[in-house]
Amino acid sequence: MIFEKVKNIMMDIMGIPEDELLLQSHLYDELDADSLDLSQIIVELENAYQIEIENEDIANFEKVEDIVKHVENKINE
Amino acid sequence: MKKRVVITGLGAITPIGNNVIDFWNHAKKGLCGIDYIKSFDIGNSKVKLAAELKEFDPNNFFDRKQVKRLDRFSHLGITATKEAYADSRLDKAKINRERLGVIIGNGVGGITTIVEETNKLLNGGMHMVSPLFVPKSIPNIVAGNIAIAFDAKGISNTVITACAAGTNAIGEAFRSIQYDDADIIIAGGSEACITPLMLAGFTNLNALSLKNDPKRASIPFDQERDGFVMGEGSAILILEALDHALKRDAKIYCEIVGYGSTSDAYHLTSPAPKGEGGARAMKLALKNAGIPPKELSYINAHGTSTPHNDQAETEAIKTVFEEYSYKIPISSTKSMIGHLLGAAGAVEAVASIKSLQENYIHPTIGYKLKDKTCDLDYVVNKGRRVDLNYVLSNSFGFGGHNASIIFKKWEEE
After folding, report:
1. Residue B193 annotated to the active site
2. CA distances for B178 relative to B184, B275, B362, angstroms
3. Cβ(B104)–Cβ(B158) under 8 Å?
C-alpha cells in the first residue's frame, strides 16, 4: 500500500514515530518538514515506483495524503 | 589599536577521551589511543592501525533527522562545540549574535558520504544519488552547521589547508577578533577520515606507518618511525576579545599572542629542505607575539612520525631557536592520538592551553630509539612539570602549508 510506503520513508528520513504520521498530517505545520526532507522523500518514491514527480507538483503538497494521491495517480497513468 | 584575544571555552572529542577533561587526563598519563581498525573490514590492507574514537554514538547527541542529515565530521564538530560553548558560559540572550563567528578547519570533508553516494551513482545510476549528498559532504558544512546550531550570525569561514587547517582556523579567528570583526569566534577543526578510501590513498602514498604494534606505530622523533597513524575527532576553542570576556567576567584560559602562516612553495607532500617554511612560520609567530625566542617555554610539535616531517621540524626549530633549541621542551600529541589531519592543530591547541594552565607537558609516548637527526628534548614517555609562560604549537600540511600559533599564560591583570 502506498500510504505504508510513504510512512516508512518519512519515518526513516524524518525520524517521526508511526502514530504521528496520518494521511491528514500537515507536512510543514505539523510534521516540521523542510525542502530537504521533501527532496529525499521524492527521490525515494521515484526510485521505488519508477515514476517521475515534477517540481511544480511537489510545491503543491501540503498533507501526507497529497503525496499518496499523487503517487497513486502517477502509477495509474 | 588591535584587540587582545583570549580563550574562554574548550571542547574536544579525541581517540583518548570524548571531552576535554578525559582527553587531558589521559594525555598527561600518556595513554595510547591507537589500535587495530574496528569500524570497517580492512581486508588485506598493509596498514592495520588507526586512532578511532571510542564509544562515540551520534544517536546520543542528535535526533534521528540530524543523524541522517549530517556527515560524521559535522557530528564531531557540533559535539565539540557544545562542550566548548557550555564551558564558556556564554549567555545567548546577552551576546550580540551578529558578532559571534565560526571558523573551522578540516582536511577531507564528508568523505564517508562522498564514497557512499559515489557507490550509489556507479551501481544504480544518477537517480539513486541522495539530495543530501552536496549539503552533507561539502567541507564548509561543518562551519555552516555550527553556525545554525549556535545561532552564530557573524563571520563564517572554513579553512582547508590539509594538516595545518586546525591551527590556521584558530589563527584566522585570532586575526578577525584582533581587527574587531567579531567579539567571539567558535574556532577549531573537525575530521572524520578513517575510511577505506583514505586508508588506501595514504597507504599508497607511503605516508602511513606499516607497524603492527599500536604502541610503536606513531613514534614521533624516534629513529624507527615510518609514517603517521590516521586519527579522527574534533576540538573547538571559544576565542573572545579580552574586553568582551572581562566585561562578562568570563573564565579565561590563556591569551593568544602570535600567529604565523607561510607556504613552502616547494612540493606536494614533502617539507622544504630544513623545514624552511615551518621555520618562517615560527619566526612570524614570535615576531607577532613580540617576544624573543628565549621566552618560549614549550613547543607542541606537529611531530607526525613520518621520517621527513620530524627531521624537517627539528631542523626548523634549530634554525629559529639556535643554541636555545636544545633547552626547549618539545612534545607530540600525535604519539597518543595519531594524526587528526585538519583537526590536529585544534586538538593540539587544547593540549597546549591545558599545558599552560597546569604547568604540565604531556609526554611523547612510545619513544625508544634516538635518531641522530632528531636530537632535541622531546619529553619522552613521561610528562614533565615545569613553569610555562609561552607555548607554541606547529602544524604543517600537504601543499606546503605551515602555521604556528603562540599562547600566553593568563594572569589576572
Report:
1. no
2. 11, 29, 30
3. yes
> pLDDT per residue over A50-65, tens digit each?
999 999 999 999 999 9
Mutate to test the interface with A, among B61, B65, B70 (most CBs of A within 10 A): B65
- Per-residue pLDDT of B341-369, as tens digits, reads 999 999 999 999 999 999 999 999 999 99
CATH class held by domain B258-406? alpha beta
The mean pLDDT value for B150-165 works out to: 98
Beta bridge partners of B101: B185
Kindly provide the b/e burial profile for residues B27-52, where b requires at least 16 CB atoms within 10 angstroms of the residue's own CB: bbebbbbbbebeeeebeeeebbbbbb
Q: How far apart are CA B258 and CA B288, in angstroms?
A: 5
B131 and A15 in contact by Cβ < 8 A?
Answer: no
**Cβ count within 10 A of residue A77:** 6
Distance CA B362, CA B351 (A): 8
DSSP symbol at B128: G
User: Could you tell me which chain A residue has the CA closest to the CA of B59?
Assistant: A15
Q: Do domains B5-247 and B258-406 have the same CATH topology?
A: yes
Q: What mean pLDDT is reported for chain B?
A: 97
* Helix/strand/coil percentages in chain B, nearest 5: 40, 20, 35
Looking at this predicted complex, what is its ipTM? 0.90
What is the residue extent of each domain of chain A? 1-28
Instruction: Specify the pTM.
Output: 0.96
Please state, in angstroms and as integers, the Cα–Cα distance from residue B13 to each residue in A33, B33, B150, following that order: 31, 12, 18
CA-CA distance, B38 to B49, in Å (whole number)? 9
Name chain A contacts of B63, Cβ cutoff 8 Å.
Answer: 15
**How many C-beta atoms surround the C-beta of residue B149 within 10 A?**
18
Whether the pLDDT of residue A26 is over 90: the answer is yes
The per-residue pLDDT for B67 is: 95
In angstroms, the CA B229 to CA B304 distance is: 8
Q: Say whether domain B5-247 belongs to CATH 3.40.47.10.
A: yes
Residue B22: how many other CB atoms lie within 10 Å: 16
Find all residues with CB under 8 Å of B14, minimum gap 6, and list them: B23, B33, B53, B231, B233, B235, B337, B340, B347
Task: Name, in order, each residue with C-beta under 8 angstroms of A54's C-beta and a sequence gap of 6 or more.
Answer: none
